[in-house]
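Predict the assembly for these two chains.
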Amino acid sequence: MEETKHISEEEVDWVLENLERDQLVQKKSAPVPRRQLRGGELALVWALRIYLIFMMVVVFWQAWAAVR
Amino acid sequence: MVVTHEDLDRAYDRSRVSAARRSLGLRGHVSLLWLLVGPGILVMLGENDGPSMLSYAATGAKFGIGFFLPFVVLTFVMALVVQEMTVRLGAATHRGHAELIFERFGPFWGWFSVIDLSFGNFLTLVTEFIAIRAGFGYFGVPPWAAVLVALVVLFSALLSHRYWTWERVTLAAAACNLVFVPVALMAHPQWGAIGHAMLTWTPLPHANQETLLILLSDIGATVTPWMLFFQQSATVDKGLTTKDIRFGRIDTVLGAGLAALAALGAIIATAPLFGHIGAANFEAAQFAQALEPVVGHIGASLFALGMIEAGIVASITISTSSAYAFGEVARQPHSLNLPVNQGKSFYAVLCLCAAVAAAIVLIPNLPLTFVVLVVNVVAVLAMPPALVFLYLLVNDPQIMGDVRSPRWANVLAAGVVVLLTAAGVLYGISVVFPRAFTWLGS
């Protein structure tokens, strides 16, 4: 990688001394394993999603009416 | 092992923390605190933004000293409960909030979260520039010059390409949020009434739609989705680890305390306007002008300066939270430690969000009052879905290990979700059925 060209071996060692392995940019590019939402969790996030969409319509309708 | 310049900069900051940790006694602790505070204070003072300070000012002018003083303190306690979770999440996973939702729960829910964030952030950014324009307007500065000054400050904070420098510059600007405290003192507050209100939560406001709007607006002035994304990403960018969680908590408590002080200052400062100005007067310059007979020209000028500061600091933190989230989901480099050539998309998103929001407030005849009215309410409504994902993540043993949420934190978090949802539902009922609360005596 181009950006690593100017970093010396000593600097690499020093970085590894001062950062946890998981903090390195290279390590952070590895994806976190996927987890499926369970029944109750899925129902809750869907319920809150519907709540949000409905309330957004209510708020924008009311604010628009107030401004007009 | 590939090491980047971003790693090098972060390692430098961490080496200073390690050196401070090796120092014994009070000096070591003070040094550690100095090195580790930042994201918590920034997120809390950043959320004391333009629309928030206008909301507090409207609260003081509309309701005077009473129920809303302790209520605002309660909202900061809620913010503290929520933000503490982001500190643990960032320190344990070294990943941003958007990135974790995307990867752990999949792109479907990830995109929903990011769309909520981007929409809310953009609306809020527009209101920051409205506050900046109005604050500068008090001093006779034309709108184009006002937004230009704000953009120059925002871009200047980025020039060092170092998280540490950016954080310290923004912290220095954020400290000016406390300017609302001397304005409150200039208003000769009635300390007896303040003490009585804080202890008894009275006098209570009438239960009607306007009160509910202010209630929601004050909650939205303290707990919003961008705060979750920002503090977690900033915690990661700063390089905090699980060893630093205690100081991350202190940082967040300090931030909440300072922000609550400034918020109470704004309410107390405008309380003398109670009965003389309507809550619909949502313009910063109007508040400053109305305050002149009470706090004098200096006090009114400080109030206007406070509005400008609130807008500028929030425009910096909110556009940064958008840029972090974009980088996390687009898998592009996203750090304030990146040189421009390595973080083009990160800096482009950050600057573009702010520049477009700034340009919008310069377009004549746009219904900007509409945006100011809805922005805090939208934030409250978007919080419960965001909090559920935060709750799931901080209780996930696979990513949190030993620092997953204890039972007491879960109970408090569930309480916040219930309270926010209930406030939103009540507001919805009051809009759909305007007479629903008249029996309570409006």
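The radius of gyration of chain B is 21 Å. Chain B has one domain: 37-440.
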